[in-house]
Amino acid sequence: LVATAALLCFVAAKAHAAYAALAGMETAITLLFLLLYLLRLDARMRCLLWPLADILNSVIASLFLLVVCLFAIITRTNKGTLAGGVLGLILLALCITDVVLLCKKISLDKARGRSAPAK
C-alpha cells in the first residue's frame, strides 16, 4: 500500500519518470510475491529458494529507494514529490524490516520440510 501511495503521489505531482517507475516496479514485484505466497506456488516450484529471492529483491529495492527518494526530497519540485519521497523512505524502512524478518525466518543449515534430527 505504501508503494502504491508513493506511486500515486509521484504521478499526480508529474515528477520525474524515474520516481514513478521505481514505485511502480516495487508495487508490481510486491504484488507478485504476495500472490506467490498466497497461492502457495513457492511450495510447488522448489527450483528456487523463494524467501532468498524475496530478500534479494528487498535489498536491491532498498538501495534504489534510498537514492531516488533522497533525490525526490532534496529537489522537492512540489508537495506531491515531497510526499512521494517521504512515503518512499517509509517503504525503505519496511523493506529493511522485511529483510531482517526473513533472515531470521530462513535457515540454510536445516533441511527443508523436516523436523530436527533425533539425538
TrEMBL record:
Assigned keywords, A-Z: Membrane, Signal, Transmembrane, Transmembrane helix
Gene Ontology CC entries for this record: membrane
Limits of the MARVEL domain: 1-107
Membrane topology, as annotated: Multi-pass membrane protein
Transmembrane segments: 55-74, 80-103
Keyword Membrane belongs to the record: yes
InterPro entries: Marvel, MARVEL-CKLF_proteins
Subcellular localization(s) per the UniProt record: Membrane
Protein name per its UniProtKB record: CKLF factor
Position of the signal peptide: 1-17
PANTHER family found in the cross-reference section: CHEMOKINE-LIKE FACTOR, MARVEL-CONTAINING POTENTIAL LIPID RAFT-ASSOCIATED PROTEIN
Keyword Signal: yes
Domain of life: Eukaryota
Gene name tied to this protein: Cklf
